[in-house]
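W.,

You were right to be curious about this one. When I first looked at the sequence I had no strong expectations either way, so I just let the prediction run and decided to look at it fresh. Below is the sequence, 315 residues in total, followed by the output.
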Amino acid sequence: MAKCFSFTATRDWCYRYSFSNAGLRSSTTDLGDGTVMHVWAPKAHIQSKPTLVLIHGIGANAMWQWNDFVSPLMSRFNVYVPDLLFFGESYTTRPERSEQFQAQCVMRVMDAYGVTVMSVVGISYGGFVGYSMAAQFKERLDKLVLCCAGVCLEEKDMEKGMFKVKSVDEAISMLLAQTPDKMRELMKISFHKPTKGIPSCFLNDFIHVMCTEYLQERKELIQALHKDRKLSDLPKITQPTLIIWGEHDQIFPLELGHRLKRHLGDNAELVIIKNAGHAINVEKPKELYKHMKSFLIDPLPPVKQGNYSNDRKTD
């Protein structure tokens, strides 16, 4: 019997309507090298407003992860929400799988829109990409917000037992869940208080719609993230950075947040959201937005002269 209704596809349509209603339009840009980037971009870019780029993590497409934030941010920013490569409608035929390449593709699509300077918010994997943008394009990033992004992890951390999983392959099987049981495992470690009793038919539907396309390429993204990773190789970015972490994050434990704060020193501030796991955008959207707004929008007296002095939030 043919399927006549998909809850996931219907919800995806609702998010699409919500983004459009907030003032964004769906747009794809061919970068000319086998790479196509999909972005939700402002229907009208207002020059007097600063630009903010929201970068999603591994999971569903960008709409599912940023829907609660787009509308309130649109009043103060030109908001751009890209789908990273192999998510949504973005893809490449090139072999690169690093967060550095993802960062370059995001910046190239921003070039196509004529945007030169921006602030970036990245959640989880999107934080890896945002951090790389800040490292590679120092003069073009104003401020950076990293949400539960374990950019300071090292390959040896898994061997030392920092994570719930024991190997990269085990992590992949959970992060790219292909069965209802694996999806339940993912929800258990993603949320501080995961929803229970979701019928398998709903989970199967979500997997079918959101988790089967570009499966091999997504595996390679995760493998590239972990392979030979060392803290000593991580550049120290210079932009004012807000680090936000869920107190009970089981995917990227809070220790990685403290490690990143130590790595960046006085240039960064760490905020810990209580009673939250890894998916802070879903569990604590109002609190997450409050901290984002305080850092990105609310003015503070300048602490010293410089490129970022008018907006910098200090510890």
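Here's what jumped out at me. Residues 8-155+229-297 form a domain with the Rossmann fold fold (CATH 3.40.50.1820). And, maybe more interesting for your project: Confidence is low (pLDDT under 50) at residues 300-315.

Coffee later to discuss?

I.
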